[in-house]
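Hi everyone,

Forwarding the result from last night's run.
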Amino acid sequence: MVDYGWSGEKEVCMKIAISGKGGVGKTTLCSLLAREMARQGRTVLAIDADPNGNLAGALGYNESEAGRIEPLIEKKALVEERTGAKPGSMGGYFVLNPKVDDLVHRFSVEINGLRLMVTGELKEALGGCYCPENALLRSFLRHLIVERDECVLLDMEAGFEHLTRGTAESVSVLLVVVEPGQRAMKTAEKISSLARQLHIKRIGYIFNKVHDDDQSRVMTDVFGAENVWAVIPFDMNAVRADISGASPFETCDGMRDTVRVLVEKLEQKV
């Protein structure tokens, strides 16, 4: 914990990874958590690590006015400067632990009282070879999770390619978002199994888009009541916000209230 001086109390610096099947609402949940934590006065850094996500828009960033946020992994000059190798090259020699501690200051974007960075997708390498882009990104994520002193929220894709064993062990909690449906539940079970292999100690399930008590009951029977940290009812306002590009924090009062309670639960568990 670190004292930021704004409240006279120690701030709990949680490192939260959010995962789940595509389309279940990971990005919506991440944006709500980030905005609520910032509203409470916390120092928050949100990371869009899902290549199919749009965390910036969910947080209230207007890309048409402010411009596209270039993912970290697409900054070719930076990758070459820090690793000593051209992006896309495989084999040969390059720096495996490049300098990354200045990247948040240089490239993060301020949105509604918090900061956002877009990392981009890890590059596929033939035969599992390591490449300069991946070296930079993995070093940066380790810096975020292990070394920095603010609340970090990672909006991740369903897999754990971004996390190494060392960074995963330092994640405060993994939130697995699940919607009613067998595919989403099976994906959540696979994610949880991978997380345990990486020694993530705290795993909580967030049920989203729940239409009724029967759906919640069936899902609870699968995951266990003690592991369900929040149930978010289906909210048509969230659909409208997604279509219009609005931030759900401004438009979805019920979801915002549920997330406020979730933040309190996270404080207790972490």
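The chain is about 40% helix and 15% strand.

Cheers,
N.
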